[in-house]
Every structure is written in C-alpha cells, then in structure tokens.
Amino acid sequence: MNKKELQAEIMRLKKEKDICILAHAYQDHELWEVADYMGDSYGLSLQAEEAPQKNVIMCGVRFMAETVKTLAPEKRVFLANASAGCPMADQLTREDVLKLKEKYPDHTVCAYINTTADLKRAVDVIVTSSSAIKIIGNMPDDKILFVPDPNLGGWIAEQMPEKEFVFSGEGCPSHRKITADDVKKARELHPDAEILVHPECMAEVTKIVDFAGSTTGIMKYAKESEKTEFVIGTENSIVDHLKIECPEKNFYPLSPKCVCDDMRITTLEDVYGCIMGTSGEEIFLSPQEIEESRKPIDRMIELGG
Ligand code: SF4
Q1: How far is the CA of 20 from the centre of ligand 1 (A)?
Q2: Given 34, 63, 133, 291, which residue has the most CB atoms within 10 angstroms?
Q3: Which residue's alpha carbon is at the smallest distance from atom 2 of ligand 1?
Q4: pLDDT of 42 over the 80 cut
Q5: Ligand 1 pocket residues where CB is under 6 Å
Q6: Which CATH code is given to the segment(s) 175-259?
Q7: Over pLDDT 70: what percentage of the chain?
Q8: pLDDT in tens, 93-115
Q9: Average pLDDT over the chain, rounded to an integer
Q10: Which CATH superfamily groups domain 94-171+291-304?
C-alpha cells in the first residue's frame, strides 16, 4: 500500500474497530492526518477521557500512553510503537523521588507530566509546560522540589521569585542540544525573524529569545503573530507542521540537532500493525497504580482550573 492507501485503510479500520487515534504534536504530519486528536500530552489525555471510542492508540511515547490509561482506565490503551520511550522520563524512578523526599521533607514535590506513571505515584502535583506557572502560583506551598527537568523548573522559578526551588533530574536531551550560540547565529541569518523556544531549552537560550512557551503556545504565537518569519527552538517536527499550516510564513529550525528519535520512531505502518494486533503494546496499570498516579494529576486539574 502506498501512503494514501495506508492512511485510508487506517481511517476505515479505526471506525470499524472503535479506535481513537491520538498523535502528539511532535509526530510526523502523516500521523496527524489519521489522528482523531493532536496536541500535547495532557491535552491528548483529556481528549482520550472524553472520546466515545473504547480503544485508544497513542502515537507518542510511553509516559503519554500511561497518562491516558490513568485518566481513562476503562479503555484499552495501546502505544503504537512499543519502543518509543522518553529518555527524560526515565531519568528518575519512584525510589529516587522517595529518597529526595527524605532529603527535602518540607518541600512539595512537583513533577513535569513527562514522567512515568510509577514516579507520579510518589509526587504531590503534576504540571505541564503550559500550566506550570498557574498551578505552582496557585499552590500555598513556598518550597518546591521540581523533577525531572531543571531547565523547565528554572524557567518557572525565574517567574516566581517568592518561592524557593530545588531541582533533580537532567531534563530533555533533545532540547538541551540548543545553545545560546545557535540563537546568535539565527539572529545573524534571519534578522527579521522572531525566535520562539520551548522552556525545556537551557536558561542561556530562554533568556535571550523573543518567546518561550509550550509547544501549543509556540504554534499559537506563530499563527497569530503579524510577523512572517520565525526561528523555532523545539523538536523540529514543529517546523514542518507550521510550514504546512501557515504556508504564507517562513519557519526555520533553531538547531538541526533538536530531534527526538523516540518521538520520530512511530510510523503509519506501526499504527496499522497496532490496529491489526501485530505490533504496538497494550498498557496495563494495576488499580493501585492508577489510583496513586491519578492523585497528583487531579491536584493539577484542581489547581489549574
Ligand atoms: S522531546 Fe524530550 S521530553 Fe519529549 S519525548 Fe523526547 S526526550 Fe522526552
């Protein structure tokens, strides 16, 4: 089957087998075209919870499929490519967090949503890059232990000097590849462009650009801006999506190195194989794991409104 035939077959089969397909923003455009919903990991989980279908296929990485299972435990949830992990989510375990809690007993533990379901069981609240400022701002707690991205955590801390932060974890290896030197070069090459980056980038980058925000925030900014040239500092798939969605504007990657192999591993063939039961993996979490990992997510919803 060629690409169009495969996409048509996936569209037919997903209706026949009552499947909702979710595609993270960093997936290839050809996967967006067969998806019921596209967005960031939290947005996708909410869509999965509300979707009428009984089965969900996640085109993304493992922690995203786990979050969907946590929020919609009655559904069968599949990860389209079983080897799609997140190197950042794997940097800290639940046991690591329990040890950190002993070291910082008076700190509230706040974890980025890009963490495993097992780690979520040990933390107090989850945040996303788009909701972190609001959620932590709404918390009465003034001592925060933030995991596992010190770059996102530092960007949040910068905006709320009234709170005290400690960090653990190393952050996203893909976004860490972008440097201040890349920004300097981009300014020389594209002097009229605005530079938009994700706060998973290092502080040396976020401090000298025009806008730092979540993936959806970057896309919204670029679409609504009157400017016509943008340099994008996040996973480079977003450059491709923006080129397709805003053909009248110009988009350039801030660094050719900002590519997440795990996010790019999933293909249309994987989705087809997952539907046919020949590839992919069903996500299983015990009732206890679901109950415990859901608590900090519910706290996020409560604080984020
Ligand atoms: S881009 Fe970074 S945070 Fe996202 S899946 Fe890849 S390694 Fe994980």
Answers
A1: 23
A2: 63
A3: 172
A4: no
A5: 61, 86-88, 114, 172-174, 235, 260, 262-263
A6: 3.40.50.10800
A7: 100
A8: 999 999 999 999 999 999 999 99
A9: 96
A10: NadA-like (3.40.50.10800)
